[in-house]
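FAQ: What does the model actually see?

It sees only this:
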Amino acid sequence: MWRRFIILLGTGVSSVLFFWNLENFFDPFDDPATLDDEFTARGEKHWNWKRFTHKANGIAKTILAASDYGGAPPDICAFAEVENRFVLRRLRDSTPLEKLDYEIIHRDSPDPRGIDVALLYRKSRFKPLRIEALKVSEEFATRDILYVKGVLGADTVHIFVNHWPSKRGGAAVSGPKRAAAAARLSAACDSIRSACDSIRGASPRQRIIALGDFNDTPENISLPLLNLAAPLAARGEGSLKYRGNWEMIDQCFVSDTSGCTMHIFKPLFLVEPDPAFTGDKPRRTFVGPRHNGGISDHLPIILRIE
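And it is asked to produce this:
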């Protein structure tokens, strides 16, 4: 029943990238260096191995179900809100994903709670050439932007995985922090373009892709890239539901829109009825202190490139 996900840019075969904010994908162990006590057996969430395993299997199920867009499991899966490399290894090695050829790219970032961005890639489809954690600011601690340059088929791609600062504290406090993240990402994109322009007859084609949780809607973000999420947001679609309204805070920006489409992945098992408003909403892991059994308060997004 699965369609194939193949990353072969420039060859007439589609490629697909998958991004998902996993909403607190923590292991159940205490890390004294981070503020993770809430997600331990004795913490407020009573987070334990059984619940962690259930969540990991749910993530794997979603990744496999996303094969509906291409015929095989995604070749690149980018994530936000993963605690460490351990949870990624468990996801790769102790779920149905173990039969696939996924490799891990992860760097610890200075977020106080210890949550990072990360990437899984199928080594048969993607060859990393450069990996770098881009620090957003020296003035406050937040998630780094993960930069991965690599070869997809015959082309070179520059992938940026983002999880920008939240709106906690209000616009006056949080807005400048997201502006700092935008400036860091924009500078990195400009640097890549300048380097490419300096090489005459540069080949193969190079494409910049920035995807992630930007914690803001398309009209409030300015980058030197083209936003594939804006048309979806204009139609009222979204990746997260807030006070009864769908919001598009998980987005994908590209340097070249040719052959690109962005989709919100919304299988029935990721949502539940929304009794407070109407329709449905993402089925999250916790509702307050109560374990709700879902996976995330975000829906995944998919970038398909023909």
